[in-house]
Design goal:
The protein has two helices and 13 strands, in the order E-E-E-E-E-E-H-E-E-E-E-E-E-H-E. The chain is α+β, with helices and mostly antiparallel strands and 179 residues long. Strand 9 and strand 10 form a beta hairpin. It folds into two domains: 72 residues, Ribosomal protein L6 (Outer Surface Protein A, domain 3), CATH 3.90.930; 82 residues, Outer Surface Protein A, domain 3. Helices cover 20% and strands 39% of the residues. The protein has a four-stranded antiparallel beta sheet, covered by helices on one side. The longest helix has 22 residues.
Length: 179
Amino acid sequence: MSRVGKVPVTVPKEVKVFIEKGIIRLEGSKGKLSFDIPHGIQIEHKDDQLIVTRASDAKQNRANHGTVRALLVNMIVGVSQGHKKDLEIQGVGFRAQMQGNKLVMSLGFSHPVEYEVSKDVKVSVPNQTSITVEGADKSYVGQVAAKIRGFKRPEPYKGKGIRYVGEVVRRKQGKSVTK
Protein backbone atom coordinates (compact mmCIF):
# COMPACT_ATOMS: atom_id res chain seq x y z
CA MET A 1 0.00 0.00 0.00
CA SER A 2 1.25 3.46 -0.85
CA ARG A 3 2.24 5.43 2.25
CA VAL A 4 1.11 8.68 0.65
CA GLY A 5 -1.97 7.23 -1.03
CA LYS A 6 -3.51 5.59 2.02
CA VAL A 7 -3.70 8.83 4.05
CA PRO A 8 -7.18 10.39 3.71
CA VAL A 9 -7.44 13.93 2.34
CA THR A 10 -9.32 16.40 4.54
CA VAL A 11 -11.73 18.64 2.64
CA PRO A 12 -12.45 22.10 4.13
CA LYS A 13 -16.07 23.19 4.58
CA GLU A 14 -15.92 25.84 1.82
CA VAL A 15 -14.80 23.35 -0.86
CA LYS A 16 -17.51 21.51 -2.80
CA VAL A 17 -16.66 18.08 -4.24
CA PHE A 18 -18.45 16.43 -7.19
CA ILE A 19 -17.47 12.91 -8.36
CA GLU A 20 -19.13 11.57 -11.51
CA LYS A 21 -18.12 9.26 -14.38
CA GLY A 22 -14.41 9.17 -13.64
CA ILE A 23 -14.08 12.93 -13.15
CA ILE A 24 -13.68 14.79 -9.86
CA ARG A 25 -14.57 18.49 -9.74
CA LEU A 26 -13.68 20.84 -6.90
CA GLU A 27 -15.13 24.31 -6.38
CA GLY A 28 -13.94 26.88 -3.88
CA SER A 29 -13.51 30.59 -3.32
CA LYS A 30 -10.40 30.81 -5.57
CA GLY A 31 -11.81 28.91 -8.54
CA LYS A 32 -12.89 25.58 -10.02
CA LEU A 33 -10.67 22.62 -10.94
CA SER A 34 -11.40 19.20 -12.42
CA PHE A 35 -9.34 16.04 -12.80
CA ASP A 36 -9.81 12.82 -14.79
CA ILE A 37 -9.43 9.90 -12.39
CA PRO A 38 -7.08 7.28 -13.91
CA HIS A 39 -8.40 3.77 -14.62
CA GLY A 40 -7.92 1.51 -11.59
CA ILE A 41 -8.20 4.30 -8.98
CA GLN A 42 -11.35 5.02 -6.96
CA ILE A 43 -12.08 8.12 -4.90
CA GLU A 44 -14.75 8.10 -2.18
CA HIS A 45 -16.17 11.16 -0.43
CA LYS A 46 -16.98 10.32 3.19
CA ASP A 47 -17.64 12.84 5.99
CA ASP A 48 -15.26 15.76 4.94
CA GLN A 49 -12.60 13.34 3.67
CA LEU A 50 -11.56 11.95 0.31
CA ILE A 51 -10.29 8.37 0.41
CA VAL A 52 -8.19 7.17 -2.53
CA THR A 53 -8.08 3.43 -3.19
CA ARG A 54 -6.81 1.29 -6.02
CA ALA A 55 -8.50 -1.66 -7.71
CA SER A 56 -5.47 -3.96 -7.88
CA ASP A 57 -1.74 -4.09 -7.22
CA ALA A 58 -0.85 -3.65 -10.88
CA LYS A 59 2.29 -1.57 -11.38
CA GLN A 60 0.47 1.38 -12.99
CA ASN A 61 -2.20 1.42 -10.26
CA ARG A 62 0.47 1.46 -7.56
CA ALA A 63 2.22 4.33 -9.35
CA ASN A 64 -1.01 6.32 -9.70
CA HIS A 65 -2.21 5.79 -6.12
CA GLY A 66 0.03 8.30 -4.31
CA THR A 67 0.16 10.63 -7.29
CA VAL A 68 -3.63 11.03 -7.42
CA ARG A 69 -3.77 11.73 -3.69
CA ALA A 70 -1.02 14.38 -3.96
CA LEU A 71 -2.82 16.01 -6.91
CA LEU A 72 -6.06 16.11 -4.89
CA VAL A 73 -4.28 17.87 -2.02
CA ASN A 74 -2.84 20.44 -4.45
CA MET A 75 -6.29 20.98 -5.98
CA ILE A 76 -7.95 21.47 -2.57
CA VAL A 77 -5.29 23.97 -1.49
CA GLY A 78 -5.61 25.72 -4.87
CA VAL A 79 -9.39 26.22 -4.78
CA SER A 80 -9.41 27.24 -1.10
CA GLN A 81 -6.19 29.27 -0.60
CA GLY A 82 -4.54 29.48 -4.03
CA HIS A 83 -0.94 28.94 -5.11
CA LYS A 84 1.66 31.67 -5.49
CA LYS A 85 5.12 32.06 -7.07
CA ASP A 86 7.28 35.13 -6.54
CA LEU A 87 9.94 36.24 -9.02
CA GLU A 88 12.54 38.96 -8.69
CA ILE A 89 14.40 40.88 -11.39
CA GLN A 90 18.06 41.73 -10.89
CA GLY A 91 20.08 43.94 -13.19
CA VAL A 92 20.62 47.62 -13.86
CA GLY A 93 17.70 48.98 -15.89
CA PHE A 94 15.73 45.73 -15.71
CA ARG A 95 12.11 46.31 -14.71
CA ALA A 96 8.55 45.10 -15.26
CA GLN A 97 5.08 46.64 -15.34
CA MET A 98 1.53 45.59 -16.13
CA GLN A 99 -0.30 47.20 -19.05
CA GLY A 100 -3.83 45.81 -19.08
CA ASN A 101 -3.45 42.04 -19.26
CA LYS A 102 0.11 42.21 -20.62
CA LEU A 103 3.28 41.96 -18.59
CA VAL A 104 5.83 44.31 -20.20
CA MET A 105 9.45 43.80 -19.17
CA SER A 106 12.59 45.76 -19.97
CA LEU A 107 15.37 43.14 -19.82
CA GLY A 108 18.30 44.73 -21.63
CA PHE A 109 17.18 43.78 -25.13
CA SER A 110 16.63 46.26 -27.95
CA HIS A 111 12.88 45.84 -27.47
CA PRO A 112 10.52 45.41 -24.50
CA VAL A 113 9.43 41.82 -23.82
CA GLU A 114 5.64 41.41 -23.66
CA TYR A 115 3.83 38.43 -22.16
CA GLU A 116 0.06 37.98 -22.57
CA VAL A 117 -1.42 36.79 -19.25
CA SER A 118 -4.26 34.26 -19.46
CA LYS A 119 -7.41 34.46 -17.35
CA ASP A 120 -6.48 31.34 -15.33
CA VAL A 121 -3.72 33.12 -13.40
CA LYS A 122 -3.27 36.56 -11.89
CA VAL A 123 0.06 38.29 -12.45
CA SER A 124 0.86 41.39 -10.43
CA VAL A 125 3.88 43.67 -10.18
CA PRO A 126 4.15 45.06 -6.61
CA ASN A 127 7.25 47.05 -7.55
CA GLN A 128 9.37 47.31 -10.70
CA THR A 129 11.71 44.47 -9.73
CA SER A 130 9.29 41.84 -8.44
CA ILE A 131 6.56 39.77 -10.11
CA THR A 132 3.90 37.66 -8.38
CA VAL A 133 2.01 34.85 -10.14
CA GLU A 134 -1.13 33.54 -8.39
CA GLY A 135 -3.79 31.00 -9.32
CA ALA A 136 -5.73 27.89 -8.34
CA ASP A 137 -3.87 25.32 -10.48
CA LYS A 138 -0.41 24.67 -9.00
CA SER A 139 1.11 23.27 -12.20
CA TYR A 140 -0.17 26.15 -14.34
CA VAL A 141 1.12 28.76 -11.87
CA GLY A 142 4.54 27.09 -11.99
CA GLN A 143 4.43 26.89 -15.78
CA VAL A 144 3.64 30.61 -16.15
CA ALA A 145 6.37 31.53 -13.64
CA ALA A 146 8.87 29.36 -15.53
CA LYS A 147 7.85 30.96 -18.83
CA ILE A 148 8.40 34.45 -17.42
CA ARG A 149 11.75 33.37 -15.92
CA GLY A 150 12.73 31.92 -19.30
CA PHE A 151 12.73 35.35 -20.96
CA LYS A 152 15.99 36.22 -19.17
CA ARG A 153 17.44 33.44 -17.03
CA PRO A 154 19.94 34.49 -14.35
CA GLU A 155 23.42 34.35 -15.81
CA PRO A 156 26.35 33.04 -13.72
CA TYR A 157 28.84 35.90 -14.13
CA LYS A 158 26.95 38.97 -12.88
CA GLY A 159 23.73 37.29 -11.71
CA LYS A 160 21.50 39.48 -13.90
CA GLY A 161 18.11 38.14 -14.96
CA ILE A 162 14.79 36.92 -13.60
CA ARG A 163 14.92 34.44 -10.72
CA TYR A 164 12.59 32.92 -8.16
CA VAL A 165 12.67 34.58 -4.73
CA GLY A 166 15.21 32.67 -2.67
CA GLU A 167 16.83 30.97 -5.68
CA VAL A 168 20.59 30.67 -5.37
CA VAL A 169 22.52 31.27 -8.59
CA ARG A 170 26.02 29.78 -8.66
CA ARG A 171 28.44 32.47 -9.66
CA LYS A 172 31.51 32.00 -11.84
CA GLN A 173 34.70 33.96 -11.45
CA GLY A 174 35.15 35.18 -15.02
CA LYS A 175 38.41 35.99 -16.78
CA SER A 176 41.51 36.65 -14.75
CA VAL A 177 44.47 38.57 -16.14
CA THR A 178 47.83 36.82 -15.85
CA LYS A 179 51.20 38.56 -16.18
